[in-house]
Amino acid sequence: MSTYLYRVNAFSQELTSGNPAYVIQLTSPIQEKDMQRIAKELNLPITAFLLEQQCNIYELRWFTPSEEIKLCGHGTLAAAHILWEEGVIEVQHPITFTTKSGHLKVEKVKQGIQLAFSTDAPIPIDITPTLQQLVSVPILKAAQNSDRYIIEIADEESLKGLVPNLDLLSTLPVTGLVVTSPSTKYDFVTGSAHCGLAPYWSQRLNKKQLYAFQSSERGGELFIDYQDDLTYITGKAITIYKSRFNELLL
Questions:
Q1: C-alpha of 250 from chain center
Q2: pLDDT, tens digit, for every residue of 21-46?
Q3: Contact 68/32 with Cβ under 8 angstroms?
Q4: How far apart are CA 234 and CA 106, in angstroms?
Q5: Is-contact 122 129, C-beta < 8 A?
Q6: Please, which residues bridge with residue 209 across strands?
């Protein structure tokens, strides 16, 4: 049985938009150091490794070029997309992924591929001088969840041109920064971390169903259904190419 490599754009159906990821469907386990070596060589934001455990249940691990991460929405969406598109699993059957963040259930719905994640609700924090120094535009509101600051700014144009102070961020007791803003076309725009942004914008807009845009050079669209402890994120994906992996390297 061959090992295949898939290049996928998640949260998009366009060639040059969405979140890019590689998906590798393994036929047998490989060592963690080899997964990291492959991800570094492929050099996309995420390489997702799939290994079947039992019927409709797969181990899923995500690697950046430099490290393994515990949770990745677009890597999960890309992996599920491949399993259904390749006919490995029939589309009417949900998929369960076993990950370092626990079990993730994925289903095919009318709007695309729906991911169910535990909500990571933020709490409001003061806008301190240090926090303001993280971004080059005025902060309207600020919050913090388990590992990130969430900063709201005035509008989408300000967000697109924003340059964060990453040197300062590296000295603070969080692992990331999320900048978000309201939008005229969408409910909100942002870069990532929708499990924290769903409760934030649900409260701000007094609605449970949200339509979001990932404001980056490539962009991406997704639907969010916030149900308190669970946040459902739905998007589409497209396969850019499929190739056979050189198994001598595994």
A1: 26
A2: 999 999 999 999 999 999 999 999 99
A3: yes
A4: 9
A5: no
A6: 225
User: What DSSP line would sit under 174-211, residue for residue?
Assistant: SSEEEEEB--SSSSEEESS-HHHHHHHHHHHHT-SEEE
**Residue whose pair of structure tokens reads 């005025």 in the numeric block:** 138
Quick check: helix, strand or coil at residue 129?
helix
| Contact status, residue 62 vs residue 48, Cβ threshold 8 Å | yes
- Give, rounded to a whole angstrom, the gap between the first and last alpha carbons of the chain: 14
Q: CATH: 1.20.120.660, 3.10.310.10, 3.30.360.10, 2.60.40.10. Which one for 4-118+235-249?
A: 3.10.310.10
- Gap between the Cα atoms of 9 and 32, Å rounded: 24
* 240: β partners: none
Residue type, 183: S
Fold agreement between 4-118+235-249 and 123-228: yes
Domain definitions of the chain by residue range: 4-118+235-249, 123-228
Query: Averaged over 213-236, what is the pLDDT?
Result: 87
CATH superfamily placement of domain 123-228? Diaminopimelate Epimerase; Chain A, domain 1 (3.10.310.10)
Among all chains, which residue has been given the structure tokens 């029939």?
90
In the prediction, which pLDDT does 23 show?
A: 98
Alpha helix stretches (DSSP H) within 2-148: 32-42, 73-85, 129-132
Q: Is the pLDDT of residue 128 over 80?
A: yes
Q: Which amino acid is at 206?
A: N
Q: In what order do the strands lie in the sheet containing 141-144?
A: 123-124, 141-144, 148-152, 176-180
